[in-house]
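hey so u asked for the seq, here:
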Amino acid sequence: MKKLPIYIGILVLFVVGVYVYFTATNITLEVQEASPLQIKDNMGTMTAAEKEQFEKEVVQAKEKVMVMDDQMAGGAALLAQGEFKPRAHDVAGKALLIQSGDSKVLRFEDFETSNGPDLHIWLASSLGDEDYVDLGPIKATKGNVNYDVPAEVDITKYNKVLVWCVPFRVLFSYAELM
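ran it, structure tokens below
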């Protein structure tokens, strides 16, 4: 008879735990952040004189041979990218590593995953939790999101992007930057 309250307590804790788990995994957090690679169009804000000068330079540029490189307008460059792959949960989208001036940004594009308890974004040297750099809690489970990468991070060593469930030590999904 003394064990009955213990069993009831365990059952209540189990039900509450299942409720919290399924509630947390069904919440979608959507964010749409601008990409550092986006080119800004100033045509709509130019004065008549600036537009005339622009048109004149466009005509002159038609005669020149231009060589393209990986450098994007505004000093942003794509360093590496990779498609997300499922591990414990389905995922969609890609991860891009972008150099913008002196800083690096890890960008998720068209990203979508299920939510979970205490998900973090890691740059890691493997698909485990032995050697990683924690970029912080996940900002969104859907959308286009940017994460700042500390300047001292060796991106050749930490070339795997992990969506990691910290309390249960579970790899939700990953992308390999190439």
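The two ends are 63 Å apart (CA to CA). Residues 66-73 have pLDDT under 50 and may be disordered.
lmk if thats what u needed
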